[in-house]
Design brief:
The complex is a heterotrimer of chains A (324), B (285) and C (247). With 285 residues, chain B is mainly alpha-helical. Chain B has one domain: ABC transporter involved in vitamin B12 uptake, BtuC, CATH 1.10.3470. In chain B, 75% of the residues lie in helices and 3% in strands. A two-stranded antiparallel sheet of chain B has the order 1-2. Chain C is an alpha/beta fold. Chain C has 2 domains: 1-79 and 166-247, Rossmann fold (3-Layer(aba) Sandwich), CATH 3.40.50; 86-164, no CATH class. Chain C is built from 9 helices and 10 strands. In chain C, the strands form 2 sheets. Chain C has a 6-stranded mixed β-sheet with strand order 6-7-8-3-9-10, sandwiched between helices. In chain C, strands 2-1-4-5 form a 4-stranded antiparallel β-sheet, covered by helices on one side. The chains are: A mainly alpha (324), B mainly alpha (285), C alpha/beta (247). The A-B interface holds A 51, 57, 59, 106, 109-114, 116-118, 120-122, 124-125, 128-129, 132, 244, 248, 251-252, 255, 285, 287-288, 290-295, 297-299, 302 and B 29, 33, 35, 37, 82, 85, 87-88, 91-93, 95-97, 99-104, 106-108, 111, 219-220, 222-223, 226-227, 229-230, 234, 260-263, 266-267, 270-271, 274-275, 278.
C-alpha cells in the first residue's frame, strides 16, 4: 500500500515540476500549447464530474463555457471598456451558474436517452443567440480585442504568453484540487452511487434530483472557468465558443482519458489538444479525424486510458479480488 | 388574412420537411432505443448527393431517388457496421458513434461540396406559383406538402395495417418472442433504421431549394428534429407529424413576427412541454 | 399496532389494471409473505409501497402517516427499506463502499465536500457489525461485480438492513439461489430482530411458509385471500391457480 502511494506521489510531483519548469525552456508556441492543454483539462474534468462520476451524459457543456466567456467579453469590451478582472470573473462564473440552474430545471425532468438529447438541443439553441444579439454580443463576428486581466495587487504583465501560462496554471491547480476534493468526498461517493443505480439511491434515502442538480451547476461553473481562461488567452469570443464541436471534443477527452477518474480526462485533454495542434498543421480535416478517433475509441478503448491504468494498478495491489 | 394563409402554407411546408426528418429519429428511438443523433448529417449528405445528381442529369426525380437510395445504403452500412456491434451496447457508446458519424460526414461534405451554400434550382414544371387574391403560393412548396402527406399516409397505412407495422407499433424488443412469431427482428430493425435515414435524405433534397444546403445545416435540422421528438414523444408517428407541423407553423409565424427572437420560438414550446409532460405529448410515459 | 395500511389501492397502466382493490394492514413485528403467480402484481405493489410508483387510487399509511404522495427517499428516512428482485447494487463500488453509501445518509456530512473519505473511518465499525454475521467482512474490498451471485443477494439484504428499517420489503430474496444458499438466507432472515416488520415476496413455497406468520395471495392484481400458512396450504382454490399455471 505504501509503495502504491509513493508511485502516485512521485508521478504527480514529476508532472508538477515539469509544468512549472518547461515554460522556461520551451519556445513561446509550445508554452501557448501547454496553456491550452491546462484550460481544456479543466473543461474535461468538469465534464467528467457529470459524465464519469454521476453518469449524466451532458452533451451541452459547451453552453456553459461559451456563455461565461461571452459575459467576460461583453463586460470587458462593450460595457466597461477596460479590464476589471474580479468583476469579469465573478460575473462570468455567476452567469454560467445561473444558466445551469435554469437549464437544469428543464433538463432534469427527462430520463434515459432524452437527457443527452435535450442537453444537446439546449446548447444548440444557445449557439444561435449571439447571432441575434448583434450590437450586444457582436453577432457572427464575436467580440475581439478582449484585454487580459490587469491585476491591481501585483504588477504582472499578463500579455506575455509565459506569464499568462502561470496565471492559468494557478487556476488549474486550484480547480483540480477542488474538483478532486469533491469527487473524493462523501458527496462524490453519492454521485457514483447515482451513476450505478438511481433507484437504489432513492431507496436508501437520497434526494437524487437534488444531487444531480447541484453537480450540474458545479460542473457548469468549472466549465465557465475554463471558458473564461480561454477567452482571455485568445482575447476573443465568438459563437464558435458555443459550438457543439467543443462539447464533442470535451466528450472525447473524457472518454479517451477514462471517465470517472478525473486525471484521465485531464490526460485526454492534453492528448487531444496536442494532437489537434499537430494534425491541424498538416490538414484541414481535423474534425473528420476526431470522428474517426471517436469510433476507434468506442470500438477498442471503451474504458479509456485512465481506467485501464487504474485497473492495472488495482490488479497489482489486490490480485485476490479477481480470483472469485 | 392573406398574411396568415401564406404563413400557414410556409409553416406546413416546413413542417412536412421536418416530419420526414423526424420520422426516422422517432421510430429508431421508439423501437430500438437508439438515438440516431447523426440524423441531421444524413439529411445534409442526402441533400448534397441528390443536388449533385440532379444538377448533372438535369432530372429532379433522379436526384430525389439518388438521395434516398444512397443514404439508405449508407444507413444500412452505419447500422450494420457500427451500431449493431457489440461495442455499441450502451447508450453512451451509441451516442459516441453517432458523433463520430456526424463529424466524418460533416467534414466530408465540406471537403466535397465546399462552404458556399447551395440553392438547388427547382425543376421547371414546379417553378411556378399559384396566385389568388393577393397571395402567391409557390408550386414547389405545394409539391413538398403533397409528397410529405403521401409518405405520411403510406407510413400510417403500413403501421396500422401490416404485420410488420404492428411489430413496430408494439415496439417489440424481445428478440426471441419476435422470432417465435416468425419475424426476423434484426432485419426489421435494419430496415427501420435505414428507411429513417433515407427519409431524412429525401427531406434534405426536397428542402434544398427552400432551406438551402450549407455546412451548418446538419446540426440546425438536428435541433429541430430533437425538438419535435421532445414535443411529440418518441416512437409515435402521430407525435412526429403533429410536433413537426407545430414547429413548422411556430417557426413560420415566429420568424415573420419576431425575427430577433426566432430562437426562442423553438425553445419556448419545448420548455413548456418539458415542464408539463416530460415524455412528450404522445410519447410513452 | 398497524405499521402499514393500504386502503383501496390500485394501479392502472393505460387501460390495464395491474393492481385493484388492494386493502390490507400489517401489524408491527409481523412476518408476512406475498405469493402469487407471475404477473399477479407483486412487484408493482412493492413499487407502490416504496414510492417508485404513484397509486391510481387509494391511500398508504405508514406509522399512521399518509405517505401516498411521499417520494421514495423520504419514505426511506421514515424507516422503510426494500430489496430488489433483480439485484440492484452499486456494482463498480466495493462492498464496503456500498454500505458506506447507506450509512452516510443519516449523517448530514454526506453533503460535506471538505471531509476526505478517510474521515468516514468512524463508520467502519458499523460496517463490520453489519457484514460479519453474514461472513462478508473479509470481502469488504471486493467490487460488487466480482462477487458471486449468492453473495450479491446477501448484500442486497444487508444494504437494506443497514438503513435500520422498521419495515423491510424483500422482493424474492432467494431468487436464483441454490438450495444450500437458500437455507443460509432463510436462517439469516429468521434471525432478524423481531422489531423489524418484514413483508416479502416469495416464489419458493417452502421458504414462504417457513418464514411467514401470515400469507397473502395475489392473483391478477387482486388480493385473493389471506391467512396463516396452514390455512393457505389447505386452500383448494389456490392449489388450482398454481397447478393451473404450471400447465
Amino acid at each position: 500500500m505504501r509503495k502504491y502511494t509513493l508511485y502516485i506521489f512521485t508521478t504527480v510531483a514529476v508532472i508538477l515540476v515539469l509544468l512549472i519548469v518547461l515554460p522556461q525552456i520551451l519556445p513561446t508556441y509550445y508554452v501557448g500549447l501547454l496553456t491550452l492543454m491546462l484550460i481544456y483539462a479543466i473543461f474535461a474534468m468538469s465534464l467528467d464530474m457529470l459524465l464519469g462520476y454521476t453518469g449524466m451524459f451532458s452533451l451541452g457543456h459547451s453552453a456553459f463555457w461559451g456563455s461565461a466567456a461571452y459575459m467576460v467579453g461583453i463586460l470587458n469590451v462593450k460595457l466597461i471598456g477596460e479590464s476589471n478582472f474580479a468583476l469579469e470573473m465573478v460575473a462570468g462564473l455567476a452567469f454560467a451558474a445561473i444558466l445551469a440552474a435554469i437549464f437544469g430545471l428543464l433538463v432534469l425532468r427527462t430520463k434515459g436517452i432524452y437527457f443527452p438529447m435535450l442537453t444537446l438541443a439546449l446548447s444548440l439553441t444557445l449557439w444561435g443567440v449571439p447571432f441575434q444579439l448583434r450590437i450586444f454580443a457582436g453577432g457572427g463576428y464575436g467580440i475581439p480585442s478582449i484585454s487580459r486581466p490587469v491585476l491591481n495587487f501585483i504588477s504582472w504583465d499578463l500579455t506575455s504568453t509565459t506569464n499568462y501560462y502561470y496565471f492559468v496554471f494557478i487556476f488549474f491547480i486550484v480547480a483540480t484540487v477542488i474538483m478532486y476534493l469533491i469527487v473524493k468526498s462523501p458527496f462524490g461517493r453519492s454521485l457514483q452511487g447515482i451513476r450505478e443505480s438511481e433507484t437504489r439511491m432513492k431507496s436508501l434515502g437520497y434526494n437524487v434530483w437534488l444531487y444531480k442538480y447541484i453537480i450540474f451547476i458545479i460542473g457548469a461553473v468549472f466549465a465557465g472557468l475554463a471558458g473564461i481562461l480561454l477567452t482571455y488567452y485568445t482575447t476573443f469570443v465568438g459563437p464558435s465558443q458555443l459550438h457543439i464541436l467543443y462539447s464533442f471534443e470535451g466528450l472525447l477527452m473524457v472518454v479517451l482519458g477514462g471517465p470517472g477518474t478525473l486525471f484521465g480526462p485531464a490526460l485526454g485533454a492534453a492528448i487531444i489538444t496536442f494532437a489537434k495542434n499537430i494534425i491541424s498543421s498538416y490538414t484541414e480535416h481535423w474534425s473528420m479525424i476526431v470522428g474517426i478517433i471517436y469510433i476507434l475509441v468506442v470500438a477498442f478503448f471503451p474504458k479509456g486510458i485512465g481506467n485501464l491504468i487504474k485497473q492495472y494498478l488495482q490488479k497489482r495491489r489486490q490480485p485476490w479480488q479477481y480470483l472469485q | 388574412m392573406d398574411f396568415i394563409i401564406v404563413q400557414i402554407f410556409n409553416g406546413v411546408t416546413f413542417g412536412m420537411l421536418i416530419f420526414l426528418l423526424a420520422t426516422g429519429l422517432t421510430l429508431t428511438l421508439g423501437l430500438m432505443n437508439i438515438a440516431n443523433l447523426a440524423h441531421g448529417s444524413f439529411y445534409m449528405l442526402g441533400g448534397y448527393i441528390g443536388f449533385t445528381i440532379a444538377l448533372h442529369t438535369g432530372n429532379f426525380f433522379l436526384g430525389f431517388l439518388a438521395s434516398m437510395v444512397s443514404i439508405w445504403l449508407v444507413g444500412m452500412l452505419a447500422y450494420r457496421g457500427l451500431l449493431q456491434q457489440r461495442f455499441a451496447r450502451g447508450e453512451l457508446s451509441q451516442m459516441l458513434l453517432c458523433f463520430g458519424i456526424i463529424l466524418i460526414i460533416s467534414d466530408l461534405c465540406l471537403w466535397v461540396w465546399g462552404g458556399f451554400p447551395k440553392f438547388a434550382n427547382k425543376p421547371m414544371i414546379f417553378d411556378g406559383s399559384i396566385e389568388f387574391s393577393d397571395i402567391v403560393l409557390p408550386v414547389y412548396r405545394l409539391i413538398v406538402i403533397v409528397i410529405g402527406a403521401v409518405i405520411a399516409l403510406f407510413l400510417w397505412w403500413f403501421q396500422a395495417k401490416t404485420r410488420y407495422g404492428a411489430i413496430i407499433r408494439a415496439g417489440v424488443d424481445d428478440d426471441e418472442m419476435a422470432r417465435g412469431i416468425g419475424i426476423n427482428i434484426s432485419l426489421v430493425r435494419l430496415l427501420v433504421f435505414s428507411l429513417g435515414t433515407a427519409l431524412a435524405a429525401g427531406a434534405g433534397f426536397l428542402g434544398g431549394p427552400i432551406l438551402g444546403l450549407y455546412p451548418a445545416i446538419d446540426i440546425e435540422v438536428l435541433l429541430l428534429a430533437i425538438v419535435v421528438i421532445v414535443i411529440g414523444g418518441a416512437g409515435s408517428l402521430r407525435g412526429a407529424l403533429i410536433g413537426a407541423l407545430f414547429i413548422g407553423l411556430i417557426n413560420s409565424f415566429g420568424r415573420s413576427l419576431f425575427p430577433e427572437f426566432a430562437i426562442f420560438t423553438i425553445f419556448a414550446p419545448m420548455a413548456i412541454v418539458l415542464a408539463i409532460r416530460p415524455s412528450g405529448l404522445f410519447g410513452e410515459s | 399496532m398497524a405499521i402499514l395500511t393500504i386502503e383501496n389501492g390500485s394501479k392502472k397502466f393505460g387501460g390495464v389494471h395491474a393492481l385493484e382493490d388492494i386493502s390490507f394492514s400489517i401489524e408491527s413485528g409481523e412476518r408476512r409473505a406475498i405469493i402469487g403467480p407471475n404477473g399477479a402484481g407483486k412487484t408493482t405493489l412493492f413499487n407502490l409501497l416504496s414510492g417508485m410508483l404513484r397509486p391510481t387510487t387509494g391511500r398508504i399509511l405508514f406509522l399512521d402517516k399518509d405517505i401516498t404522495k411521499m417520494p421514495p427517499h423520504k419514505r426511506a428516512a421514515f424507516g422503510l427499506a426494500r430489496t430488489y428482485q433483480i439485484t440492484n447494487l452499486f456494482f463498480s463500488l466495493t462492498v464496503q463502499e456500498n454500505l458506506l453509501l447507506s450509512l452516510q445518509v443519516s449523517d448530514t456530512f454526506k453533503y460535506s465536500f471538505r471531509r476526505p473519505l478517510t474521515a468516514d473511518n468512524y463508520l467502519l465499525p458499523q460496517v463490520q457489525r453489519l457484514l460479519e454475521p453474514w461472513g462478508m467482512w473479509d470481502k469488504r474490498d471486493v467490487e460488487v461485480r466480482n462477487l458471486s451471485y449468492g453473495d450479491q443477494r446477501q448484500l442486497e439484504i444487508i444494504l437494506a438492513l443497514s438503513q435500520n428499517p422498521k419495515l423491510l420489503l424483500l422482493d424474492e430474496p432467494t431468487s436464483g439461489l441454490s438450495s444450500a444458499e437458500t437455507a443460509i438466507m432463510v436462517s439469516m432472515i429468521e434471525a432478524l430482530p423481531q422489531d423489524i416488520t418484514i413483508l416479502f415476496i416469495e416464489h419458493d413455497m417452502d421458504t414462504a411458509f417457513r418464514l411467514a406468520q401470515q400469507v397473502m395471495v395475489l392473483h391478477l392484481g387482486k388480493v385473493l385471500t389471506s391467512g396463516s400458512p396452514e390455512e393457505i396450504k389447505k386452500n383448494a382454490q389456490i392449489q388450482k391457480i398454481y397447478l393451473g399455471e404450471e400447465q
